[in-house]
Amino acid sequence: MAAETNEAPEGAPATQDGAKTGSTPANATANAATTEKLTSAQLKAKAKAEKAARRAQVKEARATVGTGPPAQDKGAASDGKGAKGKGKQDGQQTQSKGGPPQAHRPSISGRRPSMPIVEKDVRSGIPDSFSHLPMAKRIPTSQAQKDVHSAVLAVGQQMATFALNDSISRLKATLLAFRKVIESYETPEGNSLSRHFVPHVLNPQIEYLTECRPMCFAMGNAIRLLKGKVNKFDIDTAEDEAKEGLLEWIDLLINERITMAEYAIARNAAQSINEGDTILTYGRHRLVEKTLLEAKHDGKIFDVTVIDDPFERGGQELAKTLRHAGIPVLYSPNLGGLRPKVAAASNVLLGGEAIFANGSLHAPSGTADVAMAAMNAGVKVIVLCETINFDRDRVSVDSLTYNEIDPERNTADCFRLLFDNTHDKYITGVITEFESGGGNSPAQAILALLRKQEDPLID
Amino acid sequence: MAPSQASHVPSLDNLIKSFNSQSLEASIESLIFLLKRRQVKGDECAKATAHILRQVVAKSKWRDVDELLSRVQSVGSRLVRSAPLEPVIGNVVRRVLGLIRDEANEDRNADDIGSEAASDIQSLTPSTTPQPPRPRPTPIRPSPSVLSSGLTVSKSMFNLLSVKAPSESPVTGASTPLSQAQPASVHALRSEVMDGIEEILDEINQADDQIAGFSDIQIHPGDYVLAYQPSRTVERFLVKAASKRRFTVIIASLESPSPGSSELSYAALRKKLNAAGVNTINLASNGLMAYIPRVNKVIFSAKAVYQNGGLLVDSGSCVAAQAAREYLKPVIVLCPVYKFCPEDPSDEVSRGELGSPGSYVSYANGSAVDALDVENTVTDYIPPDLVDVYLTNL
């Protein structure tokens, strides 16, 4: 809560100078779309004027760069892999792989010395047994690298303060910020966008975001796709064309994998709710909320039990929203009495932060306990998750493999992990936006599902 | 109802102190008050019950055993009804009743040797019970062969557990009421019963230490022990273990994270453990699955153990036990023998007791108060299959 109040002033300066969307990622996209168009149009006009002149130079220079690109290309490719495999924590690694020595390097190393000190202070209280886990941290905007775009700065601050919390809103904010980055990008002389953009412009942004808070899996996926997209551009592609292509691609990604996905999942999941059901849910998840409201909108009559995490209290908001929509809600502020409550439910709907290749669910701490209690009581456990959240490379068997420490509760006096890991045997089904027939697939089938469904965004 | 009590801070200690200054009835009422308001709860209930029954034996007018039994029973059932989810009260009442019957039986056997066995008294019990509401006053008593009042605590405990179910007892039915107990022996009986209750009190007081004696068997060096809402029993257990072993205690609880208080919870325990060189980690989390892979064993104490081995616990312990089961980590339950109930858990027990929602949804928050049905469950029932070890004071 405190975080949110702090976030506003920090977001504000960023909004001024660069993009108006500095604040939009936090909120909705509805108005973002309008403001964006304006700014993007302006920027484009400006860029076009400059670029027309420069394009000729670039073409000239290309002959000289000819030897450079292969090496840089490799760097970018391995970088993509780095993000894919390590997206979660290793900003440094991405950095060392991705960035051939360039102008911005000195500034990083210039900032570095101060970082360990800060880091030590913050992390020193973490109990030894959990010290391997990453933690979000707030970097004063003044300390950020100068290469970081103002829109990204704002998003980073919002992530560090948990104003942007769940994976999809973080992803959306990131993509919109990257849109700004692309819009304001100008290929320096003697370079081409497909070779220069990722290592010199995009990577510093990613590093910064990762430093603010470990990337979520959806962000890792989207960045991998974005880098793939950039690398696919022919070296001769005109900068305008490439930028246009990237911007379109980002819009498409947001539309298909976020907006439409949300709609499709809510519709599918709402169909799984029957008249007279008692739906139990844990905490507050966007998709679950949408689903329940959608089902109510369809005229179904059902009860909801909201079990909350007293350290987040998102469930309280959900309970209020549902109650105002006319759904009878029983609100339990903690996991007490979980067994009888779960046993009385006909369905458990859970929202997921990510799903791993082995089918296990990465979700807010406490989800696993609810899912397990439900399965033991013989109640269906249905997970709602967009496919952009699926991680097809990594597996996690316990909650200590990939997790995050709550930055506000990070000492032995008061310690908390943000997520836990639900084994796939405690999940009856996953509802995603893919798969036409109801979209209800067991967790194990996720990989198959992803493989079967050729990702339309890659090519 | 208990005006003399109004000036005091209501607590068990004050109540016990006030026993001498106020009438028996007033004391009983005060205790019922405390129980109803949950100002006496958990382990304190057993002590409180023993104390008040001691007063009943000492102060009330009774001429023979029957009268004493019925008095104890009526007071006992009032106490039980005032705190239906504290089965320990019923246990102590049963213990005291059994004790009285034993003593009476001994007297009578001394009077006319060779008369019918003590089980006579048993059949008396139900007929003399004026209020049936107490969940079946199952007579629990030591087998007739053990009659000396000078038994050691642990021995009498053992016999308590080994008693056969009443239906199996051989000579039920033919009842010869105990009314022939001589008035002269009333004094002797009174003092013997008082001694017996004193012993029960001692046993209750010593139970924690006795259980703590097993700590170094269960806790090994380097362990990560998850202590769920450590009660006094668990605290003593851990502190004892800390004197011999180096391990890490992870403390979890369901307590409301109201600002300031959550940081300070279990501060005393943590201080003690840290002083002994044992690391502690205070978890601020409801869900425990995330931490269980790190944990070697889960320890908590029970409020009561039912006949089927199921447990009545503080809510949330069930989450801990369930998570431990998932990772096959042992669940150790500390439960003194006086918490063993000769009953099966009722539906009410498995549904859990509801506590005040005020700490989660404050009354100042009008929109929430209007909109929400808040259910803050404060007790849980744990089925026996989730428990690996019951550690008692025997």
UniProtKB/TrEMBL annotation, chain A:
One of its GO terms (cellular component) is cytosol. Residues 47-62 have a biased composition (Basic and acidic residues). It is found in: Cytoplasm, Cytosol. Residues 26-35, 71-80, 90-99 have a biased composition (Low complexity). Its main location: cytoplasm. This is Translation initiation factor eIF2B subunit delta. The lineage of its organism: Eukaryota, Fungi, Dikarya, Ascomycota, Pezizomycotina. Pfam families: IF-2B. InterPro entries: IF-2B-related, IF_2B-like_C, NagB/RpiA_transferase-like. It comes from the Eukaryota. One of its GO terms (molecular function) is translation initiation factor activity. Residues 1-115 are annotated as: Disordered. Component of the translation initiation factor 2B (eIF2B) complex which is a heterodecamer of two sets of five different subunits: alpha, beta, gamma, delta and epsilon. Subunits alpha, beta and delta comprise a regulatory subcomplex and subunits epsilon and gamma comprise a catalytic subcomplex. Within the complex, the hexameric regulatory complex resides at the center, with the two heterodimeric catalytic subcomplexes bound on opposite sides. The keyword Cytoplasm applies. Keywords: Cytoplasm, Initiation factor, Protein biosynthesis, Transferase. Belongs to the eIF-2B alpha/beta/delta subunits family.
TrEMBL record, chain B:
Keywords: Cytoplasm, Initiation factor, Protein biosynthesis. Residues 129-142 have a biased composition (Pro residues). GO terms for molecular function: guanyl-nucleotide exchange factor activity; translation initiation factor activity. It is found in: Cytoplasm, Cytosol. Residues 108-148 are annotated as: Disordered. It comes from the Eukaryota. Its main location: cytoplasm. One of its GO terms (cellular component) is eukaryotic translation initiation factor 2B complex. Component of the translation initiation factor 2B (eIF2B) complex which is a heterodecamer of two sets of five different subunits: alpha, beta, gamma, delta and epsilon. Subunits alpha, beta and delta comprise a regulatory subcomplex and subunits epsilon and gamma comprise a catalytic subcomplex. Within the complex, the hexameric regulatory complex resides at the center, with the two heterodimeric catalytic subcomplexes bound on opposite sides. Belongs to the eIF-2B alpha/beta/delta subunits family. This is Translation initiation factor eIF2B subunit beta.
